[in-house]
Each structure stands twice: as C-alpha cells, then as structure tokens.
Design brief:
Low-confidence stretches: none
Number of strands: 8
Largest sheet: 6 strands, mixed
Mean pLDDT: 84
Distance between the termini: 28 Å
Structural class: alpha/beta
Length: 186
C-alpha cells in the first residue's frame, strides 16, 4: 500500500498496517494529486512497490506551483503580513506571485494588477512544463482570475487538464479569487 500524507502528520501508533510506505509530497495537496495519479498509473502498469516509491520520490522534486492572490486582506487576517502592508498593497493593487517547490514557499515577484501577475506566471512557466504529466490550474472561490490565467496559458499552447478548487485551510489564508498553476517541470 502506498499512502500519501504530509510527513508532519505521521502517527505510527494508529497504523494497523506494516506495509505502508509514506511519501512526503513537499507541496500543497494539489501537487500531491499528481503524485497519486502517477502512483495509480504505475500500479496499473504492474510496477513493483520499490520502483513506484523511487519514481515518486524523484517526481516530487519536479512539482512546481505558481500562484497569486486577489487581495492581501486575508494574508493580513491570518497574520502573514501586517494590516498596514495589506492596506498599502491593496491600494497599489499589488499582487505577490509565489512558488511552492520542494516544500518551500517563496515569493518570486510582485505585480501591479491581476493581468501583470498572470503574465508573470506565464513567463515563469514558459517552456518549463513536462507535457508527459497533467497540468492543473487552481483557484479558491471565484473563477474570474483563474479563467484569465487559463486563457493566457492556452494561448501558449499549453493544455490544462482541469481546474481544482483550493481547500478551505489554504483558502482561508489567501481569500477568494486566488489562482495558480500546478505542473511537473522538465
């Protein structure tokens, strides 16, 4: 059995199974989706457990996520930034662009307005996507921004497999109309 969970959520005492293999995706749950799909594919192909684990451990190093938020208000409410920074940033229509890679969240840039944030994301992913794997856009409540992102990405001849909803835990910190992309990099 291969089970995907966050490393910090491990509780061995509750496990009745002695053949469980834990894989820390080092990404948000949306990156984990790609790993789960690949594990299922390899199981159907009849690959042995060791091969599956090794392939997933290597693949997780290539999960890439770029995202942005519609407003800084929720980052402020969650204590991630000060209220003053959020107010000034929202007045200037500042949109941070972040990445999550190998378990680390980092800001890769700041854009003025949604359209510039989308352009920044598209520039970051240009010629970086391994098309052997699915590509997902992600969003919180509201699809206006993610639909703009999809239109721009598709104009680069990149196939989007699906749009997935960001869950309530992350969503409560980033607010409505947050958007992004999850893929495997070359």
């Amino acid at each position: 059995t291969i089970k995907m969970i966050r490393q910090d959520a491990i509780n061995y005492e509750n496990s009745d199974y002695d053949r469980i293999h834990l894989i820390d995706s080092q990404s948000a749950t949306l990156g984990m989706t790609i790993l789960v799909q690949e594990a299922k594919k390899m199981i159907k192909e009849g690959k042995d457990v060791k091969t599956i684990i090794n392939n997933l451990e290597e693949l997780k190093k290539h999960i890439k996520i770029y995202a942005s938020v519609n407003t800084l208000e929720y980052l402020s409410k969650g204590g991630r930034i000060s209220k003053a920074v959020a107010t000034i940033g929202d007045m200037a229509s500042l949109k941070p662009v972040i990445t999550i890679s190998e378990g680390k969240v980092a800001m890769v840039g700041k854009a003025i307005g949604i359209n510039k944030a989308i352009s920044m994301i598209c520039k970051k992913i240009d010629n970086q996507i391994d098309t052997n794997y699915p590509v997902y856009t992600v969003c919180t409540q509201g699809e206006t921004n993610v639909n703009k992102l999809i239109t721009k990405i598709q104009s680069q001849n990149i196939q989007i497999n699906d749009t997935m909803q960001i869950g309530p835990t992350i969503g409560s910190h980033v607010g409505p109309e947050a958007f992004g992309i999850v893929y495997i990099e070359k």
